[in-house]
Design goal:
The protein is mostly beta strands and about 425 residues long. About 15% of the residues lie in helices and about 40% in strands. Strand 1 (about 80-95) and strand 2 form a beta hairpin. Helix 1 packs across helix 2 (about 30-45). The relative contact order is 0.14. Residues about 1-30 and about 45-75 have low confidence and may be disordered.
């Protein structure tokens, strides 16, 4: 989903050559999004190289590290299966409270795809969070993706099952080697509930001019899951009512659509919308439509990587719900939003190491307004939280990245922290 890194018009030609190599190697069944992700990973290795020979070599090396999520059908069953995965380990230390420092295996993910024929395949991912999962441990085991995909033509694909929603810059590209900073940015965590997946049916297409479009029908949110006694809803409004296809209430379905344009070398422009009733036929809930829309841009002039995103969410008819919750710390917001701007500079060294210092500025408000409950009952809207993040990524081997960053929170500086992380993708 991210844009291609290109230093000059010559790289566009080289990327096209790499695309042909990938296709001939068995990637013909890949979706446009996956092909774009592979090219992005290739180009990330050559962003700062100045000669065409060095650029082509780095792209060829990077292609070996990109997770192949397709398999060309052969007469041997084993050859139809492709394995891939990613993971991250991190250390986080609040600057004002060393007793709250944590070390964690944040994620351990294994995935597999199976090609039934040259048009049909199955894709899956299994994820373990926080190393140990049991009734007494904080970890979770979850199926992140599990869907059947069918190639309808050279430019159109359909899929059914559990899949990622095509929203923002991060949700479909959330591997630790694909973003800056130890942890995912706050906007695409608190406002966009990355990693966001739903069960349903979707169609994806692309054009020769670089336009990708997605349309789908899926499960949605369940407002009856809102816990007014907890602060979880104030931290992640949609994350707290996300169903993840775990015996998901499906009385009300949702629809989504997205467009992304990458027809200009180094530029990506896109937007998406997701909407559906979260009442799910539950007692006390009626016509509580959740709508989330966002717009994003990414531009790669030379060695620079510049990106920005704005996201806005709303939940309708929350007044009657909140009247039953008055007195609890967390009522349901009517609206929430966030935006960020990020800049990184990629410096590539002779040993093919790449150092990318970056800075990001975010504004987040998880409860920017509430439906009126009357004088003395309506909660005050939260103040905007402003977050500044600075640090660097160091790619020292294909598919492996070391990260360090510092986060400063303007509204609540008790959250200020230093993070150190190690990520991988294969």
């Amino acid at each position: 989903m991210t844009s291609l890194f290109r230093n000059s018009p010559r790289i566009a030609t080289l990327v096209a050559v790499c695309t042909a190599l990938l296709t001939s190697a068995g990637a013909s069944a890949a979706t446009p999004a996956e092909l774009e992700a592979r090219l992005d990973a290739l180009a990330a290795q050559v962003g700062a190289l100045q000669s065409e020979i060095a650029q082509l070599k780095a792209e060829r090396n990077a292609s070996a590290a990109t997770p192949a999520m397709t398999a060309a059908p052969t007469t041997e069953t084993g050859a139809n299966v492709q394995w891939f995965g990613y993971g991250e380990l991190n250390y986080s230390r609040p600057t004002g409270d060393s007793s709250a420092a944590t070390a964690d295996v944040g994620r351990f993910v294994l995935g597999a795809s199976y090609a039934f024929d040259d048009k049909t395949r199955f894709v899956s991912e299994l994820e373990l969070e926080h190393a140990v999962s049991s009734a007494d441990d904080p970890g979770e085991v979850e199926v992140e993706q599990a869907y059947i995909e069918r190639r309808l033509s050279d430019h159109v694909f359909a899929k059914a099952g559990l899949f990622l929603i095509p929203v923002g810059l991060l949700n479909e590209n959330h591997e630790p080697t694909r973003y800056y900073g130890v942890f995912r940015n706050v906007v695409e965590t608190a406002i966009v509930p990355t990693t966001w997946r739903e069960g349903g049916f979707a169609v994806q297409g692309n054009t020769d001019g670089g336009l990708r479009w997605d349309l789908g029908v899926s499960t949605g949110f369940n407002l009856s899951k809102w816990d007014a006694t907890s602060t979880e809803g104030q931290e992640e409004p949609l994350g707290s009512i996300h169903q993840e296809l775990a015996l998901a209430s499906a009385g009300d379905l949702s629809v989504f659509g997205a467009v992304n344009f990458t027809g200009v070398p180094g530029l990506r422009l896109g937007a998406s919308v997701f909407t559906g009733d979260s009442a799910q036929g539950q007692p006390g809930f009626d016509n509580n439509r959740v709508t989330l829309w966002e717009g994003h841009a990414r531009w790669n002039p030379g060695d620079w990587d510049l990106s920005a995103l704005y996201a806005h969410g709303s939940i309708s008819n929350t007044r009657d719900v909140n009247l039953t919750l008055v007195g609890n710390p967390s009522l349901v917001p009517a609206a929430f939003f966030g935006w960020y701007a990020e800049a990184a500079y990629r410096a590539t060294f002779a040993n093919d190491w790449m150092l990318a210092p970056f800075a990001r500025y975010e504004v987040v408000n998880t409860a920017s307004s509430y439906a009126s409950l009357g004088a003395g009952l309506t909660p005050d809207a939260l103040e905007d939280e402003k977050i500044v993040t600075a640090g660097f990524n160091l790619d020292f081997a294909r598919g492996v990245v070391l990260k360090i960053d510092y986060l400063h929170f303007d509204r609540d500086d008790d959250n200020d922290r230093v993070d150190l992380g190690l990520g991988y993708q294969f």
